[in-house]
Automatic annotation (TrEMBL):
<dbReference type="InterPro" id="IPR017926">
    <property type="entry name" value="GATASE"/>
</dbReference>
<dbReference type="InterPro" id="IPR014729">
    <property type="entry name" value="Rossmann-like_a/b/a_fold"/>
</dbReference>
<dbReference type="InterPro" id="IPR022310">
    <property type="entry name" value="NAD/GMP_synthase"/>
</dbReference>
<dbReference type="InterPro" id="IPR025777">
    <property type="entry name" value="GMPS_ATP_PPase_dom"/>
</dbReference>
<comment type="function">
    <text>Catalyzes the synthesis of GMP from XMP.</text>
</comment>
<keyword id="KW-0067">ATP-binding</keyword>
<keyword id="KW-0547">Nucleotide-binding</keyword>
<dbReference type="InterPro" id="IPR001674">
    <property type="entry name" value="GMP_synth_C"/>
</dbReference>
<dbReference type="InterPro" id="IPR029062">
    <property type="entry name" value="Class_I_gatase-like"/>
</dbReference>
<feature type="active site" description="Nucleophile">
    <location>
        <position position="86"/>
    </location>
</feature>
<comment type="pathway">
    <text>Purine metabolism; GMP biosynthesis; GMP from XMP (L-Gln route): step 1/1.</text>
</comment>
<keyword id="KW-0658">Purine biosynthesis</keyword>
<dbReference type="InterPro" id="IPR004739">
    <property type="entry name" value="GMP_synth_GATase"/>
</dbReference>
<feature type="binding site">
    <location>
        <begin position="229"/>
        <end position="235"/>
    </location>
    <ligand>
        <name>ATP</name>
    </ligand>
</feature>
<keyword id="KW-0315">Glutamine amidotransferase</keyword>
<dbReference type="InterPro" id="IPR022955">
    <property type="entry name" value="GMP_synthase"/>
</dbReference>
<keyword id="KW-0332">GMP biosynthesis</keyword>
Amino acid sequence: MTDISHDRLLIIDFGSQVTQLIARRLRELNVYCEIHPYNSVDEAFISGFAPRAVILSGGPDSVTRDGSPRAPQKLFEMGIPLLGICYGQQVMMHQLGGTVDSGHGTAEFGRAFVTPQNSLNILEGWFNDGDEQVWMSHGDHVSKIADGFEVYGTSPNAPYAITADVARNFYAVQFHPEVHHTPNGSKLYENFVKLAGFTGDWTMGAYREQAIAAIREQVGDEQVICGLSGGVDSSVAAVLLHEAIGDQLTCVFVDHGLLRMGEAEEVVTMFRDHYNMKLIHANEQELFLGELDGQSDPETKRKIIGKLFIDVFDKYARPIGAKFLAQGTLYPDVIESVSFSGGPSVTIKSHHNVGGLPEKMDMALVEPLRELFKDEVRDLGRELGLPDSFVGRHPFPGPGLAIRCPGEITRPKLEILRKADAVYIDQIRKHGLYDDIWQAFVAILPVRTVGVMGDGRTYDYACALRAVTSVDGMTADYFPFSHEFLGETATRIINEVEGINRVTYDITSKPPGTIEWE
Ligand SMILES: Nc1ncnc2c1ncn2[C@@H]1O[C@H](COP(=O)(O)OP(=O)(O)OP(=O)(O)O)[C@@H](O)[C@H]1O
Ligand SMILES: O=c1[nH]c(=O)c2[nH+]cn([C@@H]3O[C@H](COP(=O)(O)O)[C@@H](O)[C@H]3O)c2[nH]1
Ligand SMILES: NC(=O)CC[C@H](N)C(=O)O
Ligand SMILES: [Mg+2]
């Protein structure tokens, strides 16, 4: 969906690991921005995009290397405010006639302190207590600044830590203001967007109206189906679509037999009864569990589920004559699919992903959330009146309990898993921890262990509790439950769930682990 009615900022990505964070900081300031890789922006693109300001990201390459990435030279003649970060600073200096050198012992990785030289508009609110903490990650450094630039801050290994050509509104810094370890970094972005004239017009209220208009324009009178999981993304997408096109929308909720306890009832009640949406409750348990029978390889399981999702959507779309398929694709998914490197990255796991859907089903995609981050989707959900209990839900993967049941899936194991998961989540809620955790679940292990209960011998399954903190699911740490909480939860699970006699807590971060067990 393209919309140019709000002020736009363009982030040119040179491949930094933290480019997404620049976008997040800006969105928090109610500034609309998009990230585009350096090799897909040229003068025509920039003119069409009509940014009010441009930020050049960091990146792994060295401007001293022949063939390394450059910004379109025209960018420097367009009269728009520019901010270069790390590689972005280096490339700006290089293209504007300064010099960048490699090595010579001037690398800085991690925390550094910048000392002020002169006052500068984008540094308002900085240097209140002397030096300012910043986060650096560079091997190269600017050794001569370009004509028109002056120095406003230095660090021990970056004499040109903060530089600017105020007359042209060009700003270039060696450190990363977007990361957490530059504590006042947001202030720098705030000052920058203010001087560029942004009014902070990117709000969820405005977005809601624009998204609805765009959906109506795209869809016309045609029928749309939406894969609705009851998860945050598809729920918000469905409510937004329903507001836009009412009865032209049919949601398909697939019960693949791999859902959590009570989930199907909850989703159906909420959407069919409360929202009066056309909702197909597709009970496809036999199909999914049948095809998965005897399968134990994680990738095989994922591929089977992915394909069956496609088959099922197809089956229900045909009689309706739906020409559009709606899904809850988010901005991080979009960024990842146009990643800077473009190189073949290793497949860790095949997310059940709906990427194969459009070709097979011949339906065009409607993706009203593809400009949003997860926290913005949650804000939009609240704006649309979805209850907090839905908006704040932990993510739940499309393949569901299949990937929390390592090895072969059987109905009895799924039943045990559902019960254990319900007790665990109940414990987390009772202790007021649900909102502090990104995601929590139980995995049933493919191993049975010996126990003693009521003087009798047991030989039952072991399970693992998982709870992680994360911002975006890309990295994660285990949640530091108290021993009391863990002990109480283990006791409850063993007492209340027949079939489990041992409980463990998974304390692996991501990396090296992943969040799910398969
Ligand atoms: N059981 C299901 N029935 C129908 N569609 C589903 C189901 N599970 C997943 N999907 C589809 O796959 C998409 C991706 O799933 P994903 O889990 O990433 O998002 P979500 O379930 O909407 O939100 P959340 O990340 O909060 O779980 C969903 O937006 C939805 O369109
Ligand atoms: O919709 C989804 N389809 C999938 O196939 C899938 N696999 C993992 N996940 C979710 O993604 C996040 C990261 O999970 P991993 O660390 O296990 O890769 C976590 O939030 C996982 O629950 C999935 N979501
Ligand atoms: N983080 C960055 O942008 C690093 C820029 C460049 N690769 C350097 O090492 O200096
Ligand atoms: Mg989900």
